[in-house]
Automatic annotation (TrEMBL):
Pfam family, one: Pect-lyase_RHGA_epim
InterPro entries: Pectin_lyas_fold, Pectin_lyase_fold/virulence, RHGA/B-epi-like_pectate_lyase
Signal peptide: none
Rhamnogalacturonase A/B/Epimerase-like pectate lyase domain location: 108-197
KW Transmembrane (keyword) present: no
Organism annotation: Planococcus shenhongbingii
Protein name: Glycosyl hydrolase family 28-related protein
Segments forming a coiled coil: none
GO MF annotation: an example: hydrolase activity
Keyword match Hydrolase: yes
Keywords: Hydrolase
Length: 517
């Protein structure tokens, strides 16, 4: 199976249904996943760390931060909408979109303000005039429009003639730190902004052979929403950014330590049918933001150039530092370091409260990678924030080694440091002829706890050591339930459990020797 950079992510739902071939409805599957999560979730709050001492820089960042909580004050869950599963808050966001449509008092064409889509004329001034102070619907006809940057005020919609027809391209003299498209005020915040039916080109070629294409923090991306409430990004392609294709973010990233998060995060943002490639770091990333919905999207083939060569942690979709209550539906990734990575740096709070329904990963090094860096080893502090992931209908096809991150063993799934994790109705397909060098397909490790893997199939990983590995020892996993798993023509050991374990439950694991491609 191949997914190119021209893959239409609107087909993901149909692809996933054909590959999984599951008789359960989406509603039935979701109820099953919710029950598995309920069974393993621990309700009590995480204990405060007593062994961890912040350095001076973390203490300084912490002054600009606020407390991080893993509990959703609204207690939002999932709801069935047609044959999809969506966050409960989506109808409210739909009503806000209707309000945006009623508030816009001007509907303009950017060419009427002097913009020329010839790929050469600087159209920055024309766009600024068209946007004005907001309450405007700006149409951008087919063509390539060069700008130095665009900043969108509240109550604004900017719409093109289609992903491949309308392209907004960053000027050749723009500095490396420049964001191509962003909201206007990161400090005070903006609201009701929609970007639709167009392409964004960060024009990385202007940097020549620069070793690092990004300027740090939340600069250097195609589209940045920072401190935005009620945002939409629909049918937008973003290519070749120095950092991210799409960054749903806070005013500024914050590294004030675990248990703290940045102020000024975005809230209630929906990205649908977006795609990108050539990104220096991640396709979509979220930071310190709440109630984000990402659906029917595709990311592939990063450049990895925001990292040191050979250490490119470039993910298709990354739910990163301080993010909370994020829903992912029917997305796909290919040839990235991570397909979906839910994580945090050591000096930040982890993402928490993530729900995934349907994801197709093809040839990613680590299809699904959940971790809190700096909280894995026996001597590391326990994470205060790495909690609560529920996922269903995950498909990993042929994970591979990659030059992007030298020495990183391919995995369909890795859970490290996270607690309260339920993964249901998954399918991991390997290449029987590929040399996995004795590495396991899925690893539950590094102080992960209360993890449930259920109703899954693993096939074709003949040169792996185990289909599912649960690490033991001082920094091993704890309280893991593995049930109703079929291993077909795959590793010699369906389940391998590290030494000293007394808290792993294994039920109804079947092994079949023959795998038919």
């Amino acid at each position: 199976m191949q997914l190119s950079k021209y893959h239409d992510p609107a087909k993901n739902k149909e692809l996933l249904a054909a590959i999984l071939n599951d008789s359960l409805s989406i509603g039935e599957t979701t109820k099953e996943t919710q029950e598995l999560f309920r069974q393993i979730k621990q309700e009590e709050a995480p204990e405060q760390n007593t062994i961890y001492k912040k350095n001076w820089l973390e203490r300084l960042w912490s002054l600009l931060a606020e407390d991080h909580s893993i509990e959703d004050p609204h207690h939002y869950s999932e709801r069935v909408e047609g044959d999809d599963i969506v966050p409960e808050w989506k109808p409210g966001l739909d009503r806000q979109y209707e309000e945006l449509e009623t508030v816009m008092v001007r509907r303009v064409n950017v060419e009427d303000f002097g913009a020329v889509g010839d790929g050469a004329t600087d159209c920055t001034a024309a766009f600024r005039k068209a946007l004005g102070n907001g309450r405007v619907d700006v149409f951008v006809p087919a063509g390539v429009y060069v700008v130095r940057k665009l900043e969108l005020p509240s109550w604004t919609r900017i719409t093109g003639a289609g992903k491949g027809a309308t392209v907004i391209k960053l000027h050749g003299h723009a500095p490396k730190r420049q964001r191509l498209l962003a909201n206007q005020n990161f400090v005070k915040g903006n609201h009701h902004i929609s970007v639709e039916n167009l392409g964004l080109d960060w024009n990385v070629e202007r940097l020549g052979d620069a070793a690092n294409t990004s300027a740090g923090n939340n600069f250097s991306s195609c589209l940045t929403f920072a401190n935005v409430t009620y945002g939409w990004v629909k049918q937008v392609a973003a290519v070749n950014p120095g950092l991210h294709c799409f960054d749903i973010s806070s005013t500024i990233y914050n590294y004030g330590g675990d248990g703290r998060r940045a102020r000024g995060g975005s809230r209630y943002v929906w990205l649908d049918q977006v795609n990108g490639y050539g990104f220096g770091d991640d396709g979509i990333t979220t930071h310190h933001s709440d109630y984000i919905f990402i659906s029917n999207s595709h990311f592939c083939d990063p450049s990895g150039r925001s990292h040191k060569k050979g250490f490119s942690n470039s993910n298709g979709i990354e739910i990163d530092d301080g993010s909370r209550f994020v829903w992912l539906l029917n997305n796909s990734t290919a040839r990235c370091f991570g397909g979906v990575e839910i994580k945090a740096h050591a000096t930040s709070s982890a993402a928490t409260g993530v729900f995934i329904s349907g994801h197709l990963s093809v040839n990613d090094n680590r299809a699904f990678n959940f971790r809190h860096i700096g909280h894995h080893l026996a001597e590391d502090p326990q994470s205060l924030s790495a909690f609560n992931i529920a996922a269903q209908r995950l498909v990993s096809v042929a994970p591979v080694f990659t030059d992007m991150y030298a020495g990183s063993a391919p995995r369909a799934l890795v859970v490290s440091g996270f607690k309260n994790v339920a993964i249901n109705r998954f399918l991991f397909i390997g290449d029987p002829d590929y040399d996995y060098q004795g590495n396991p397909v899925a690893a539950i490790q590094y102080k992960a706890a209360r993890v449930s893997l259920a109703n899954g199939r693993v096939a074709g990983f003949k040169k792996s050591s185990a289909d599912i590995y649960v690490a033991g020892g001082k920094q091993g996993a704890d309280r893991v339930v593995i049930q109703n798993i079929r291993c077909i023509g795959s590793a010699e050991k369906p389940v391998k459990i590290g030494k000293g374990h007394t808290s792993v439950v294994v039920e109804n694991v079947e092994r079949e020797k023959v795998y038919r491609t």
